[in-house]
Specification:
The chain has 295 residues and is of the alpha+beta class. It has three helices and 15 strands. The protein starts with a helix and ends with a helix. The N terminus is likely disordered.
């Protein structure tokens, strides 16, 4: 009896080990992506379904949908050349707003954000997207500069669709001030300036939604009599049905966005020249940083 008991335990242990080996070998491995990344599946939901979802400007699908993001193995966003990853949800009907979520992908000593397992957009919430801040160029804009000569620079600042043109012009001048001081000069003149706006638009599809509800009511009464020849009787009743339907028609809509861009060509000087209007680089740098609360 003791021998049989020991044998039973041994067989059970072997089966348990075999089960563990089978489950571990058949476990699904994450999909591999470029640069050593792996795929993360993110559920995207909106307060009202059928919202158009875009990631970095590419169409993903209508909500609810699943977004595949290739990120680092530690669960953070990977930098594929842009410092930010942007997800947008577009209105389903009039009165709603475009919703945006922006995540950092790292670079220039900035940390990476973790990839969420779920994204939720409240389509009725008023947009809180901030204008482009002062940083090197990324998905939402920023500055880009080229040193053409030790004393000549080209600076371009691009803003997002909530950035005012004045802000783009000021932050381009701020970058010019920094370059001037970094190269040992004190002032600069703007040789050429170009201001423009990038116009983009997106279209939402129209759709018709119908909802219906109903109810049914019935009642009746009757009598049954038993006699030597069988059953006899009478019965009367009635039934009623009610139904209500509501149809909502949403027309196609077009949303247009304007993003400012300022480009300047700068000549730097060691001291203020005669007959040429120049900006004091140190003064302008301090003034613009105070204006926009830049540390």
């Amino acid at each position: 009896m003791r021998t049989i008991f020991a044998f039973t335990i041994t067989v059970g242990a072997l089966l348990a080990l075999a089960g563990c080996a089978t489950s571990s070998s058949t476990a699904q491995k994450p999909e591999r992506g470029p640069d050593g990344t792996i795929a993360y599946m993110v559920q995207v939901e909106t307060s009202e379904p059928r919202a158009r979802i875009e990631a970095n400007g590419d169409y993903v699908g209508k909500s609810p949908t699943t977004l595949k993001i290739f990120g680092d193995k530690d669960g953070t966003f990977h930098n594929f050349g842009s410092y930010e990853y942007e997800v947008k949800a577009y209105p389903v009907r009039q009165g709603q707003y475009i919703q945006t979520k922006v995540f950092r992908t790292g670079g220039l000593f900035r940390p990476e954000d973790r990839i969420p397992s779920r994204l939720y957009f409240d389509m009725d919430a008023e947009p809180s997207s901030a204008p482009t801040s002062y940083h090197s160029t990324g998905l939402t804009g920023g500055y880009d500069d080229t040193v053409l000569a030790p004393d000549r620079y080209r600076v371009v600042f691009r803003g997002n669709d909530t950035t005012e043109p004045e802000r783009a012009q000021d932050l381009a001048c701020l970058r010019a001030s920094e370059l001037t001081l970094q190269h040992g000069f004190t002032c600069f003149a703007i040789i050429k300036e170009d201001n423009s706006e990038k116009v983009s638009s997106t279209n939402t599809l129209g759709h018709i939604d119908t909802t219906a509800s109903g109810s049914r009511y019935s009642s009746g009464s009757g009598n049954v009599y038993i006699n030597p020849y069988g059953y006899s009787g009478n019965y009367s009743g009635r039934s009623s049905s009610f139904a209500n339907a509501h149809t909502t028609v949403t027309l196609p809509q077009t949303y247009t966005f304007y993003s400012p861009k300022t480009g300047i060509l700068v000549q730097a000087f060691e001291k203020k020249p005669d007959g040429i209007f120049t900006y004091d680089a140190a003064f302008l740098q301090q003034s613009l940083k105070q204006k926009y609360r830049i540390k």
